[in-house]
Amino acid sequence: MKYQFKVTQTENSSLSKVDFNNLPFGKTFSDHMFVADYIDGHWTNMEIRPVAPIPTHPGNMAWHYGQEIFEGMKATRDAEGTPLLYRPEKHAKRINYSARRMAMPEIPEDLFIQAVNTIVYMEKAWIPPQPGSALYIRPFMYATDETIGVKASDTYRFIIFVMPVGPYYSQPVKLLAQDIYVRAVVGGVGDAKTAGNYAASLLPATMARKEGYDQVMWLDAIHKKYIQEIGTMNIFFVIGDEVVTPNLDGAILDGITRDSVITMLKDWGVRVSERPITIDEVVEAFKAGILVEAFGTGTAAVIAPVAKIKYKDTVMELDQNIDKISTKVYNTVNGIRNRTIEDKFGWIIPARP
Ligand code: COI
To answer: Of 46, 188, 215, 333, whose CA is between 20 and 30 Å from 222?
Structure first.
């Protein structure tokens, strides 16, 4: 391995306390994390150590000006227990895209992949064997200069921690199309995976929940009619025999599950289009009886069928008792991830000691 990591093992593993059959998303943390610092223009202090709070000065720039980026990845295992990474090089490229947009330093791709590999291999006993469960990997980077003043920080910290998780959504989701607040505008930071995008989504998401909806469906900032994404996922619609997902216009996150789904559908000969799609087109398709299904895609959510969409006064209930494309896609992604289906696209990389 190219980079040397100092390793400090925990003396108090909490592994034996985990109930792998009952894993609410995002609440259970493994024993160890990877930490590195960016100082004087290079990455240093690379180590694996027990998960613990990291004291931070109140003047830390990340608190005030929001220089933070992150990734969401998953590791799974095959029947022999081999830990498997899913498309780590895509995540390495995406975190560096986010870094450039947020005026943060890039992480060499080989360092990112080695760090993910090492922490996953070390925590392989935390990968849940249950179908639909996985080890969620959260790499993130934040500014560490202690300075009050709006400028890019000179120093940063990069951390990776991992968590065993069950499904993000246990039921088909209900979406409320949002026509007052907007998530992102072309030229902004909507295509970077940065904390502020999620912070900005929380008020509309809370309002949607009060109305009984799980998530917001975002429309574009200028016309308030082009569908962008869901608060936690990219979105696909099946209209007649065409599968449509909004094109990457610069305001939408370039989802890795989104990319996997498009690749698989094309491979199956399904007509799949990345193109602008308006909420009016979806309403018209629903009224004409050709809105066959809709589903969200994301690392956390994997493939989430949509049960209902509300836009203004129109409520669109989607039949779940059909032979859905989203079910075939979900089963295929999971099969590739546990190696019961051939990985013909080369997406799976075993984690190594
Ligand atoms: C992911 O899908 O990994 C994300 O980062 C989104 C968040 C809802 C967990």
So the answer is: 215
For the CA of 74, the closest atom of ligand 1 is 3
Q: Above 90 in pLDDT, residue 131?
A: no
Mutation pick for ligand 1 pocket among 232, 257, 258 (CB with most ligand atoms within 8 Å): 232
User: What does the mean pLDDT of the chain come to?
Assistant: 97
For residue 186, how many other CB atoms are within 10 A of its CB?
A: 13
Indicate which atom in ligand 1 lies nearest the CA of residue 231. 8
What is the whole-number distance in angstroms between the Cα of residue 89 and the centre of ligand 1? 18
The residue out of 120, 147, 167 marking a domain boundary is 167
- Convert the pLDDT of each residue in 146-185 to its tens digit: 999 999 999 999 999 999 999 999 999 999 999 999 999 9
> Does 197 sit in the ligand 1 pocket, CB within 6 Å?
no
The CATH number covering residue 200 comes to: 3.20.10.10
pLDDT digits (tens, 9 = 90+) for 211-259: 999 999 999 999 999 999 999 999 999 999 999 999 999 999 999 999 9
State how far the Cα of 309 lies from the Cα of 262, in Å rounded to an integer.
22
| Total domains in the fold of the chain | 2
Listed residues 136, 167, 198: the one ending a domain: 167
User: Taking the model in full, what pTM does it have?
Assistant: 0.97
Give the model confidence (pLDDT) of 179-212 as tens digits: 999 999 999 999 999 999 999 999 999 999 999 9
Mutate to test the pocket of ligand 1, among 201, 299, 303 (most ligand atoms within 8 A of CB): 299
Which of the four pLDDT bands, split at 50, 70 and 90, describes residue 290? very high
DSSP labels for 40-71? TTEEEEEEEEE-------TTBHHHHH--EEE-
CATH of the domain at 38: 3.30.470.10
Residue 320 CB coordination number (10 Å): 14
Domain span including residue 299: 173-322
Which residue's alpha carbon is nearest to atom 5 within ligand 1? Answer: 72
The answer, yes or no, to whether any atom of ligand 1 lies below 6 A from the CB of 300, is yes
Same domain, 106 and 143: yes
Atom of ligand 1 nearest to the CA of 257: 2
Spatial distance between the Cα atoms of 133 and 50, rounded to a whole number of angstroms: 23
Instruction: Please state, in angstroms and as integers, the Cα–Cα distance from residue 192 to each residue in 87, 93, 168, 283, following that order.
Output: 18, 12, 22, 29
